[in-house]
Amino acid sequence: MLAVSLRPGPSLAAFPASARRSPVPFLLFPARLHHRPCCSPRPPREPAPPPTRDTPRLPRSTRRACRRFVSWALATLFSPAGFWIARLGSARLLLDEMPTLRFTADWEAARAGKDQGRIFTLPVLRANSGGLIVRFNSLQGFVPNPLLSPAHWCKDPKKPIQDITKDLVGTSISVKVAEVNEEERKLVFSEKDASWSTYSSQIKIGDIYDGIVGSVFPYGAFVHLRFPDGLYHLTGLVHISEVSWDLVQDVQDFLNEGDAVKVIVVNIDTAKSRIALSIRQLEEDPLLETLDKVIPLEADQSPDRMMSPSEVELLPGLDGICNELLQEDGITDVQFGRQASEKRVVSQDLELWLSNAPAKDNKFTLLARAGRQVQEVYLTTSLDQEGIKKAVQRVLGRVP
Length: 400
Fold this sequence. Notes:
Order of helices and strands: HHHEEEHHEEHEEEEEHHEEEEH
Radius of gyration: 49 Å
Largest sheet: 5 strands, antiparallel
Number of domains: 3
Strand order of the largest sheet: 3-2-1-4-5
Distance between the termini: 148 Å
Structural class: alpha+beta
Helix content: 25-40%
CATH architecture of the largest domain: Beta Barrel
CATH superfamily of the largest domain: Nucleic acid-binding proteins
Number of helices: 9
């Protein structure tokens, strides 16, 4: 067995005085290591220069307050409570910035919706004299009265538009973005554009619709078209030249707001979202028939009676046109028939029309018209109707 003796270690008094005064703990190493310093001695700190007038110092109370604040901040930040205080402060800053971030994102969404042509269903918040206020996420947009769908107005044409928009508050409407201006805080929507995107593919040239006259202008009238579902989704223009076969000097003499009319689609401009309509093309042009339908024959007149140039007072410019017609290939003779006055004025200018009356012995009938005067002109020709039309167009292009 091993005998272990437990004896107390040497006391500090057993070591030399130099070792007891050493700044580092005394280690049981060879004596030559104890005289080697562990690091170079630190040079003595020079006293700070006294403050001068050029470098003023803060008051002592202020310096103490700053030291206390720094000590508190360090203690707070490096403690669990300080961590959550900092997190709550960051969260509060984030909450303060969230409305701005949300508004920016919604403006970007509005611009993207306009570029993509998207249709949005938005709630109506309120109405004013100019239109509707709708909500788009965190933003508010405006739908002017002229950009509303005609479906609202046509429910009761005699009702003011302000009363119609009040009834829409609390409902939702389908719209497209018409204008986005973040700097001016302007966000405009159009219900008409949304209706065009939805229903324009259902109309074709030659389609006939029942309509209601919406507004009348010197150049024509806008007519709202009724679709099979019973609502009026699109609006087209009836130009002044398509209102009637009669001479139209004032559209309001023929059409008024709220009138029920029947129209035919004559043109569709997809790029500009426009529809051209006509009322007169649903009526038979009187000049495309024989003169008997325009002016009844008198008892002593015969429809086949020819007149010599001395018996006929030709319409202004008609004599030159007839001479030019004789120069066309295939036209051998030009003669004049009946002449009379109408009860209405269709045009003050000289117009030539090819009658639908069947040809007899290669003889076709032209109807010349100016003001109230109508004159029959008979062409003896070997041309067909299309050839005669082209010949007349060439002559009218040469005659001033």
